[in-house]
Amino acid sequence: MYKVNFDFLNSRLGKIWDEIFSRSMLIQAIHEERISKELFAIYMLETYQYTKHNPRNQALVGARNISIPHKYRSYCYKHAREETGHEEMALSDVRALGFELPDVELLKPLPATETLIAYLYWISSQGNPVQRLGYSYWAENCYRYINPTIEQLSRVLSLQKNQLSFFIAHSSIDEKHAKEVTDMITLYCKSDDDYNDICRVMETSLYLTGKILSNVYVEYEQLLRGDISQYQFLRN
Amino acid sequence: MYKVNFDFLNSRLGKIWDEIFSRSMLIQAIHEERISKELFAIYMLETYQYTKHNPRNQALVGARNISIPHKYRSYCYKHAREETGHEEMALSDVRALGFELPDVELLKPLPATETLIAYLYWISSQGNPVQRLGYSYWAENCYRYINPTIEQLSRVLSLQKNQLSFFIAHSSIDEKHAKEVTDMITLYCKSDDDYNDICRVMETSLYLTGKILSNVYVEYEQLLRGDISQYQFLRN
Amino acid sequence: MYKVNFDFLNSRLGKIWDEIFSRSMLIQAIHEERISKELFAIYMLETYQYTKHNPRNQALVGARNISIPHKYRSYCYKHAREETGHEEMALSDVRALGFELPDVELLKPLPATETLIAYLYWISSQGNPVQRLGYSYWAENCYRYINPTIEQLSRVLSLQKNQLSFFIAHSSIDEKHAKEVTDMITLYCKSDDDYNDICRVMETSLYLTGKILSNVYVEYEQLLRGDISQYQFLRN
Amino acid sequence: MYKVNFDFLNSRLGKIWDEIFSRSMLIQAIHEERISKELFAIYMLETYQYTKHNPRNQALVGARNISIPHKYRSYCYKHAREETGHEEMALSDVRALGFELPDVELLKPLPATETLIAYLYWISSQGNPVQRLGYSYWAENCYRYINPTIEQLSRVLSLQKNQLSFFIAHSSIDEKHAKEVTDMITLYCKSDDDYNDICRVMETSLYLTGKILSNVYVEYEQLLRGDISQYQFLRN
After folding, report:
1. ipTM of the complex
2. pLDDT tens-digit profile of D61-71?
3. What residue of B is the nearest CA neighbor of A65?
C-alpha cells in the first residue's frame, strides 16, 4: 500500500501560506488595522465568485466518463452537495456589513479569481481524477493558518456573527471535511504519480488563491483613486 | 404557481409502455415462457451499460454553469450519489446466473443502448436544466408497469434473489426516489416550456429504452444463429 | 498496413438504405406522388436542425484533448469549416417554397432528430476519435442512394433550383468530401477496433437518420389531423 | 456600428509587455547575455505545452452550441487548422540545439503554463464567444515587442535558423493572422460588453504568459541547484 507523505504536503502548505501572508497587502492591511469594510467586502464578493463554482467543478470529477472507484465518485457527489449554496453566506455577510448589492449575476470575477476558477475546472475535468483532492486538502485545512487573521479582522471591524457567517460556518464544517479529504487521499493516492498530481494541484491552487488577495487589494486601490471599478457601488 | 399535469404524464407513460410491451419480442419471450438465461443475461449486461452512466449524466445537470436553484442542484448530486455503483448489481446478477464474465470494460453497449446513453448526456448537459426529471420520472416509476413481467421472468427461470438483485433493490429504493422526483417536478416545473421539455424527455428516453429491448432480442437471435457477437461467451 | 474493407461498408450501407426506403412512409409518399410541400418542408426543417450541429460536433473531434495525428485533426477543422452555415440553405429552400418561417431559433428538433444530434455529439466527444468518419462516410456518399428519390420529389412538386439548393449544393460538394473521407479512413483506420468503431457509427447514425424520416411523417399526419404541432405555421 | 478602441488595446499591451520585460529574469538573462541553451530549451518546451492546446481551445469556440455568426465560427475553424501541429516546431528547435528529448507525452507543463492552458480552455468554452479574440490579438501581434529580444537571444547563443524555426515561422505567419484577428474584432466586437471581455482576456492571458517566463526561470535555477526537475535530461 502506498504511504502518503502528509508531512511533506503540510510543510509545503506552511511555506506557501507564509509566502502569501508576508506578501499580501490585504493581509498587511488587516494586521496594521487599516482594513476597511469596503476592502473586506471586495474580498468576500470574490470569495462568492469562486465558491459558487466549487460544487460544480467538484461534481465534474464525479461525472467523468472514466473508471473511478465508486467510493471516490460518491465522495465527489457528497462533497459537491455539502458545498452547494455556500456562496450565499458570502453575499449575506456583505449585506450584513450594510452594503446594498446590485444584481450579483452581473458582477464579474476579477482576473485572478477567474484564473482560479478556470484552473479548478481544468484539473477537475481532465488529467488524474484524484488531483482535485489537492485543492480540497488545503481548502479544508486552511483555518489553522487564517483564523488569527480572521480574528484580528473581526476585532478591527467589530464584526458581528452575521457578518462573518461564511468563515464561521466553514471553520466548523471543514473539520469534518478535512478528515474526509485525508481519508480519500489515504485510500486513492496509490502511486508517486497520484501524489505528485495532488501536490501540484495543492500548491498551484493555493498560489492562485494568494493572487486573488493581491488582485482584491489592487482593485480596492483603484476604487479609492476613483478609477472605473464594478465595485463602485460599495462607495455610494 | 404552475400546476403540473401529472395525469397527462401518467397517461402518456401508460400508452408508451403498452406499445413497448405489445411490440417487444423480449417481453413476448417472457410471457410465452421462452425466455432463456442467455437472453436475460444480455438484457442485464445492457442494463449495466446505461446504468453505469446514470450518476454521471445526473451529476452533469448539477455541474452546469448556469443559474439553477440550490435545492435542485443539491438533488442532482444526491441522486447521482444514490445511484453510484448500482450497475454492479446487474453484473452480480449475471454472474449469479452461472455465467463467467470477461473484462467488462471491454464490453460495448449495443447501438440502441449507446443511443440512450448519448441522449441522456445530451439532455443533461444542455437545454432546460429540469428536463432530465422527465427521464427520472418514468425510470423511478417503472415498477408498476414491469413488475408482473419480472415476476413471470423470475418464475420461468426459477430465479433466486441473488439473481434478481438489481430489480429487487430498485423496486424498493425507487419508491422513495419516485416521491423525490415528483417533488422536484412540482417545485421546479414552472411553465409550459418546462412541462413540455420534461414530457419530451420522458417520452423520448422511454421510447429509446424500448429500442434497447428490441436490440437485445436481435443480438440474442444473432447469438443463436452463431453470428459474430460479443456475447459469444454466454454460450460457452 | 491495415486494409480497410470498403466493400463490406458499402454492402452494409446498401442494405440499411434499402431497409429505410422500403419502410419509410415519407419515401413512399414521394414514390406514390402523394408528397406535399408541407411534408417536404417539415423534412427540410428537421434537416436544418441536425445540419446546424454538424460543424460543431465535427470540430469537437479536432478539439479533443488526446493524441490525434495532426493531419486528421486538421481535416476535422477543415471539414467543420466547409459545412458551416449550410443549414441556411435548408431554410432558404423552405422559404422559396412559399412558407413564411417564424423565429427559427424557437423551433425544436423532433425527438428522432434530437436523438441523432445527441448521438453525433456523443461519438464525437468520446471514444475512438476516428469513429465519426463512419457518419461522414455515409453522409458524403448518400447521393447515389437518394438522387432518384430527390428527382422524383422535384418532378412531383415541380421544384425550382432555388427550392432544392440544399441537395443540389451537397450533391456537388460531397463528391470531393466523399474522397476526403475515404482518404482519412484509409490513413487512420489502422486496426480491427478502428474499423468496427467506424462501421458501428456508420450503421447507427444512418439508422437514426432513417428514424427522422419516420418521425417527420408522423408529425405531418398530426398536422393534417389538426393536432398540436410546432409546424402549424405551414398550414396558414 | 460599434467603434473598437484599438489604440487603448495597444497602449494596454505596451504597458503589460513593459512590465513583463522589466520583471522577467529570463528576459534579463538574455539582455545580460547569460542565457544558456538549457534555459532556452525549458522555455521552448513550455511553449510546446501550451501551443499544443491552442488549436483545440480555438476550435472549442467554434463548437459552442449557441448562436454565433457563421463567419466568426468559420474563422475559429480556419485559425485552429492553421495552428495545428505548430508545437512540433518548438520540439524540433530543442532537438536542433542538441538535446535528446524523452517521450514528450510524459513531460508535464509547469504550473504557470498549466494555468494559462486552463484559462484559455475556460474563456473558450463559456462566456462571451468573442472574448478569445483578446488572446489572439496580443499573440498574433507580439513580434513587434519580442523581436529585439529574440534577435539578441539568437546572437548570444549563435542560433541557426533550424534552432529558431518556431519564432521565424510565427513572425511571418502572424502578420496575416494579426490582420484577420483585427478584422474579426472590427466585425464582431459590437458593444462595450464585447470590448471589455476582449480586453480582459487580452490582459489576463498576456499576464499569465508573463508568469510562464518567471516559472521557467525558477525551474532553471532548480535544475542548476540539482533539485528534482523533469528537465534533468537537459543536463545529461
Report:
1. 0.97
2. 999 999 999 99
3. B56
